[in-house]
Amino acid sequence: MILALDRGDAVEALALVAAIPALRRVKVGLELFTAAGPEVVCRLRELGLRVFLDLKFHDIPATMAGACRSAARSGAELITVHASAGKEALEAAQAAAVQGAAEAGLGDSPTLLAVTVLTSWDPARFKAELGLSESLGAHAKRLADLAAAAGLGGAVCSPLEVAALRGSHPHPFVLVTPGIRPGGGALGDQRRVMTPAAALAAGASALVIGRPIREAKDPAAAFEACCGELMASRGATEPFP
Q1: Is 3.20.20.70 the CATH number for 2-236?
Q2: What is the pLDDT of residues 118-163, one digit of tens each?
Q3: 116/101 Cα distance (integer angstroms)
Q4: Which of 21, 34, 93, 209 to pair with 79, CA 20 to 30 A apart?
């Protein structure tokens, strides 16, 4: 499980981390990174946390390569790029991430994850607004296939697409799923969601959970409850490194 630290500043994010001693993995997204900068990644790593840097780079190949090279130097273990940037950009980003990690003297290169279709899209609006002829699910698979062909280590998708993508891309291809909601939890702006246990059973490698824990009266208790559900279902999955 990866806790999304979508807080407005580093003080709030670090306070949340301190309130959950058992936490091991965190996600730094656009909101926190824009407010706190690369320093927050360093501070989280100093606390022994493994960082998923979710900035969803999407640009021309040279720019994506430069961004991924810098991101890799931060020590983040997972970094997102948009698959819709195309194969050339994905290949450039992958090569640059490997180079950046090596230049920083890091033992391992980060895993680049290609974002397929955001979990805020529903099928009807996806078709109406983007004008694509293929279904949302088919488009997500197309983009995951593109990521694998470009040599990336995984993809980000909604839990509703996990089973289909896992059928085409077995482990160790990483499938990270946001849009995770414990049973009865509020959806917020997410549309394609699933419970933690169901997402793992479908083949997810790791789950990103944010608001159900961040906004709980007792974040540590909410975190432990999610962990309990995951532990009960972990036999359905391969271990995530």
Answers
A1: yes
A2: 988 988 999 999 999 999 999 999 999 999 999 999 999 999 999 9
A3: 25
A4: 21
